[in-house]
Design a protein that fits this description.
Elements lengths: L2 H20 L2 E6 L2 E6 H16 L3 H4 L1 H8 L14 H12 L3 H13 L2 H26 L2 E2 L5 E2 L2 H12 L4 H39 L10 H16 L2 H30 L4 H12 L8 H17 L6 H5 L7 H8 L1 H21 L9 H10 L5 H32 L3 H20 L2 H25 L1 H16 L8
Antiparallel strand pairs: 1-2, 3-4
Length: 486
């Protein structure tokens, strides 16, 4: 048995166990069609709907102000924190704009048909309010360390915020904070690392000659290369990661969108029919296995994996921002699902549908998207390979930071624990390259969706705090209390 096969076999059982518990499904019937509905997807949809209405569509009324904040119009460099609004957004985006936007969309369409793309957009819109809520809390309950760095995220508003609502919630909050941190470490290793390197490796094999090449039988070598490249950046901590991501994110997103526009332009005559197919398939009971429920589940599950709204992960990056107003970073954060899901994922879906490759049998993940690119120019998959590599790399360095902060919460912040975590993370990069796509997706989804259980409980309990902070800030903003440059 090869090294790749041995590692993959070793990870099969943990992946199956995790998915059976965390992604537990119940049978449902809708429109005469039977389907399996993961309860965790219902949990995320309900939370997205609640906060969208409870916060009176902050995703719409705060949209313009969010862009002003990112541009630095109201920034105060004297506030405590480590990074600017733009750097925080870029770091969080580099964690969400990853292979979920390329391979994840392809998986959603393979499982749920073209209609899954429609539900991904819906999930992105609902996710904007969730991102606002969790990142607001991340800044409000963050702590400042002795060395001037800050630590924040769901583990802190679980342990520090819940007791403010009621003293009896102190121990439940602490216990859930620990459980969240454990899942966050697992999510960093799974979705933020293994899935990314796995799909980057698949695309590299695709463009380098396929199954006959040396690389195709030595995935561990590509994983080792990515591990070294990731380790070079993550050693420097949040400020180094932010400096890299603020340059990397605009380049990689721009390159991908330009390439996507080329595909769509060449197939411009197919665009109206493709959009009609996406919308009608979203509501067609017999569209795919599981009917409309199957399309909704595929769309919401992959959208959640892509933009991480409700997971609480992005709050870790946004907590490092320089601001004294928690609401400002909540507003900046709501742009993430818009850029990640509504723009980039929709671009991917259109590329796959207008090119017609979604009808190919036996092809999924990044390979399906690669086939769509190849329909225009034979060398276009090489452009995609560059984008895939950048998407994967940027996600890995951001998620390494998320996992690191969760690791410190569990074991304390010291050099020995820091080194141990980074060795573990980089070792997982090698393992992820060798695993099959199914095992990687199951393990990644399980860990990341588990984070949402504890995070959303905190959001519900602290909903009153979120609304008071928003109302206070919004009334002052409308009264002109904040002037540009401050």
């Amino acid at each position: 048995m090869s090294i790749d096969a041995a590692i993959n076999e070793m990870m099969k059982a943990p992946s199956e166990l995790a998915v059976s518990v965390i992604l537990y499904e119940v049978p449902v019937t809708f429109g005469g069609t039977a389907a399996e509905l993961p309860l965790i997807v219902v949990w995320l949809i309900a939370a997205g709907l609640f906060f969208t209405f409870y916060l009176r569509f902050i995703s719409l009324r705060g949209f313009k102000h969010a862009f002003d904040l990112v541009r630095g119009k109201y920034s105060d460099p004297n506030c405590k924190g480590e990074v600017s609004h733009f750097q925080a957004l870029a770091t969080a985006l580099s964690g969400t704009v990853g292979l979920g936007n390329i391979a994840g969309v392809a998986v959603a369409i393979t499982l749920g048909g073209p209609g899954a793309a429609f539900w991904m957009v819906v999930a992105g819109f609902l996710g904007m309010s969730l991102k606002f809520a969790e990142c607001l809390l991340g800044v409000k309950y963050r702590i400042e360390n002795a060395d001037g760095t800050v630590s924040g995220g769901a583990m802190y508003y679980l342990s520090r915020g819940l007791p403010e609502v009621h003293p009896a919630l102190m121990w439940p909050g602490k216990i859930m904070a620990v459980l969240f941190a454990i899942c966050c470490v697992g999510g960093a290793i799974g979705g933020g690392n293994m899935f990314q390197v796995n799909q980057a490796y698949q695309q590299m094999v695709n463009v380098s000659g396929g199954s006959e090449t040396w690389l195709a039988h030595n995935a561990w070598a590509f994983g080792l290369f990515m591990a070294v490249l990731t380790g070079v950046v993550i050693i420097g901590g949040m400020k180094t990661i932010a400096r890299v991501t603020e340059k990397l994110v605009p380049i990689m997103c721009g390159l991908y969108l330009i390439a996507g526009f080329v595909i769509i332009f060449v197939n411009i005559h197919n665009v109206p029919a493709a959009l009609a197919l996406i919308v009608t398939s979203a509501f067609a009971p017999q569209a795919v296995a599981g009917g409309i429920i199957g399309a909704i589940v595929a769309g919401f599950r992959r959208a959640a994996f892509s933009n991480e709204a409700g997971f609480g992960s992005a709050a870790i990056a946004h907590s490092a921002v320089k601001t004294k107003e928690p609401v400002t970073e909540g507003l900046v954060a709501l742009l993430e699902p818009f850029i990640d899901t509504i723009i980039i994922c929709t671009m991917t879906a259109l590329v796959i549908v207008v090119s017609g490759v979604y009808q190919e049998a036996g092809v999924d993940g990044v390979t399906l998207t690669s086939h769509a690119f190849a329909t225009v120019l034979p060398w276009f998959p090489k452009v995609l390979a560059i984008v895939v590599f950048l998407f994967a790399y940027s996600t890995m360095i951001s998620w390494s930071y998320y996992g690191n902060k969760a690791w410190f919460y569990l074991f304390g912040e010291n050099k020995a624990m820091d080194l141990l975590y980074k060795l573990l993370f980089c070792s997982a990069t090698v393992v992820g390259a060798t695993m099959s796509l199914g095992n990687v997706i199951d393990f990644s989804d399980s860990m990341m969706f588990a984070m949402s259980i504890f995070n959303i409980i905190a959001l519900y309990i602290l909903a009153g705090v979120i609304k008071r902070e928003l109302n206070s800030y919004w009334s002052r903003y409308k009264a002109g209390a904040f002037t540009p440059g401050r």
